[in-house]
């Protein structure tokens, strides 16, 4: 009898929940209808009172007559539905007029704006329902929706999103702060304990330079044209490092920043989807089951000296990479020196969370039709995917090559973590390894190439800036 009573109780609860939903719906509809009626009445009487009050001062012929029909026309024209049907005004595109050297303008169809809003909601869905980097995709999705709301101009000059963009993305301020926070969150111990995994982080940068070479050749295809600055900015997507992609795009090709940033962050979020098929394709079951020995304990002195040495080498050998590398190592030194716990805690929690929100909103603010829905942007997204796949595959293949000479074999799966999507890529390596052998934990081993990939992508960006930034 108790189960029956329990089921009846649950049934009653479900009925109550249904009634609650119906009641809430009715209340919402009543509020909307009431607001609309009061707005119409209030506006009409307010306009009439204003007109009557002005007659004594102004000439009656100069005052427009009150027309309920005109009011409704204006009301309809102020709706989002009308804007989506009619389209937006002229917007600046990413294409440059060869005659004037200025950016072209075009009328943006309403359906394109509506499509970008749908893209924003899709990003939010992927973040919430699928768990794809929610800390990034949710604010990017909302930024995309905000930027495409008709008639309000949140992304226009002086708007809410434009202020955010100019405050930290247009001047590369936010990417450096993000690197500082990432440094404070990163443990370089696995890399220090097993230095040879740095080669896997370097191998993953083949995706960047391979695509750079590919883009140089692709200019031979009719209709495709990338100059060397644009090619460098697009190629960096292969590192799957959002802050680095924003940094180099803003430095070399600001007009492509929106597409490059969105592509880089999207592929970071899609690491669990893109990488596993590539990893399984390039490895055998036996290779995926290779077990690696536990890493040695790294002393505190080693952890303190490492960021100072890396920063010093970047200053001596590649000053153009020093801002990114230096910000990363500053955050890490906060963590490891043990005398700045408050700074370390702030950098890896409050600061990086605030900056991530602002940076993601700023990235979303540039996802507008005139910047995003064009052949060049679609080509960039496609090429970025190729670069990411190449970087993943190269890391795996180099690990297999190293096993030809090593007595203690490396599980090739950790080579895929050489792309600098920290720590997602390392988690994916560990997950694929556990699928083959539930007792094979690769996470700490994969963190070595993963953090090496962060340094590697910063160095790759520095090389490109040093070569072509002037």
Percentage of residues assigned to helices: over 70%
Contiguous uncertain segments of 5+ residues: 1-10, 12-16, 45-60
Task: Please provide the count of β strands.
Answer: 2
Oligomer: single chain
How many helices? The count is 22
Strand order, biggest sheet?
A: 1-2
Strand content: under 5%
Overall body shape:
elongated
Mean pLDDT: 82
Order of helices and strands: HHHEEHHHHHHHHHHHHHHHHHHH
Largest sheet: 2 strands, antiparallel
Radius of gyration: 28 Å
Structural class: mainly alpha
Q: Give the termini separation.
A: 82 Å
What would you say about this model in short?
The protein is mainly alpha-helical. It has helices at 2-55, 68-77, 80-86, 110-129, 134-148, 160-169, 173-185, 189-193, 198-203, 206-218, 228-235, 242-252, 257-269, 271-282, 285-288, 300-317, 322-336, 341-365, 369-372, 375-402, 424-436, 443-468; strands at residues 90-96, 103-107. It has a two-stranded antiparallel ribbon.
Question: How is this structure best described in words?
Answer:
The chain is mainly alpha-helical and 470 residues long. The chain is 70% helix and 3% strand. The chain is built from 22 helices and 2 strands. It has helices at 2-55, 68-77, 80-86, 110-129, 134-148, 160-169, 173-185, 189-193, 198-203, 206-218, 228-235, 242-252, 257-269, 271-282, 285-288, 300-317, 322-336, 341-365, 369-372, 375-402, 424-436, 443-468, and strands at 90-96, 103-107. Strand 1 (90-96) and strand 2 form a beta hairpin. Helix 5 packs antiparallel against helix 13 and helix 6 crosses helix 18 (341-365). The protein is elongated and about 90 Å long. It starts with a helix and ends with a helix.
């Amino acid at each position: 009898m108790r189960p029956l009573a329990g089921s009846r109780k649950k049934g009653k609860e479900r009925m109550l929940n249904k009634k609650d939903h119906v009641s809430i719906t009715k209340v919402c509809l009543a509020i909307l209808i009431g607001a609309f009626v009061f707005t119409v009445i209030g506006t009409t009487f307010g306009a009439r009172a204003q007109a009557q009050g002005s007659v004594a001062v102004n000439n009656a012929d100069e005052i427009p007559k009150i027309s309920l029909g005109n009011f409704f026309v204006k009301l309809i024209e102020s709706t989002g539905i009308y804007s989506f049907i009619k389209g937006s005004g002229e917007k600046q595109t990413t294409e440059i007029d060869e005659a004037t050297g200025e950016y072209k303008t075009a009328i943006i169809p309403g359906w394109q704006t509506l499509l970008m809003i749908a893209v924003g909601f899709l990003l939010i869905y992927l973040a919430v329902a699928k768990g794809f980097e929610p800390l990034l995709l949710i604010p990017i999705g909302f930024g995309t929706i905000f930027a495409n709301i008709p008639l309000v101009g949140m992304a226009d000059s002086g708007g809410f999103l434009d202020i955010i963009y100019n405050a930290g993305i247009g001047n590369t301020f936010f990417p450096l702060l993000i690197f500082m926070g990432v440094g404070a969150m990163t443990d370089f111990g696995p890399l220090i304990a097993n230095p040879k995994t740095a080669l896997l982080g370097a191998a993953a940068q083949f995706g960047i330079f391979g695509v750079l070479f590919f883009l140089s050749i692709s200019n031979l295809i009719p209709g495709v044209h990338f100059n060397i600055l644009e090619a460098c900015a697009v190629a960096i997507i292969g590192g799957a490092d959002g802050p680095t992609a924003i940094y180099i795009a803003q430095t070399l090709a600001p007009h492509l920043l929106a597409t490059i940033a969105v592509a880089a962050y999207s592929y970071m979020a899609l690491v669990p989807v893109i990488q596993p098929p590539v990893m399984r394709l390039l490895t055998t079951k036996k290779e995926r089951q290779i077990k690696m020995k536990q890493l040695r304990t790294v002393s505190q002195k080693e952890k303190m000296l490492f960021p100072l040495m890396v920063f010093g080498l970047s200053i001596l050998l590649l000053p153009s990479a020093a801002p990114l590398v230096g910000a990363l190592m500053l955050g890490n030194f906060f963590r490891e020196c043990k005398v700045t716990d408050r700074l370390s805690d702030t950098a890896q929690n409050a600061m990086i969370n605030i900056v991530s929100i602002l940076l993601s909103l700023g990235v979303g603010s540039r996802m507008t039709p005139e910047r995003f829905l064009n052949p060049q942007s679609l080509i960039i997204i496609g090429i970025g995917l190729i670069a990411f796949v190449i970087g993943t595959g190269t890391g795996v293949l180099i690990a297999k090559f190293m096993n030809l000479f090593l007595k203690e074999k490396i599980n090739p799966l950790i080579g895929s973590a050489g792309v600098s999507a920290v720590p997602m890529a390392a988690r994916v390596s560990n997950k694929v390894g556990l699928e083959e052998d539930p007792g094979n934990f690769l996470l700490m081993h994969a963190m070595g190439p993963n953090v090496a990939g962060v340094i590697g992508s910063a160095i790759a960006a520095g090389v490109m800036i040093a070569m072509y930034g002037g």
